[in-house]
Amino acid sequence: MKKQQYLEITPFTLAVVSEQDENGRYIAKVLEEEAEYVLEAKPTNVIDYACKYFGASLKGRQEGTREISGITHKAPITIDPASGMYFFPTKSPSNANCSWIAHSHIKEVRREEEGKTSVLFKNGSKISLDISHGSLINQLQRTAQIRFLLDDRIKRWRKPPHSEDDKDS
Q1: 0.70 exceeded by pTM
Q2: pLDDT one-digit tens code per residue, 146-164
Q3: Distance CA 107, CA 120 (A)
Q4: Strand order in the sheet with 106-111
Q5: Would you kindly state where each structural domain of the chain is located, as residue ranges?
Q6: What contacts 85, CB < 8 A, 6 or more positions away?
């Protein structure tokens, strides 16, 4: 795996996982449907870069989540709602050991030993995370909620306005 500074997060990105390199620095392992990349940046910085690529900062996306849903801590975000990229953090984003998981790629969540949970993705790959099963399920549900609320708002604005002729039919 080649080390890079940043990489575009796409609809094919499964997760941005926090790992420590041989010097103890936190780096990001980006899991794609058919590839893996190691980036010399913390996962939250990779997510912030991806948000900015689509016109908003991570902080702006978090504020949007708070405004729409009231979720304030470990807020799930959309990187780009048009392409269905919704991610949730496994810990506080200020924690260097925070990983980010793409909501749309999760097939199953399994309880492991105390404090760990495995995520099975639709493509068959699997990761083990330092997060309790209950906490991960909660993050999944919160992401589904923000996804529904934001998608609903977007759909409402895409509907064509009713003309005066429509009222008579």
Answers
A1: yes
A2: 999 999 998 887 766 665 5
A3: 6
A4: 106-111, 117-121, 126-129
A5: 3-152
A6: 9, 10, 11, 13, 50, 78, 79, 102, 104
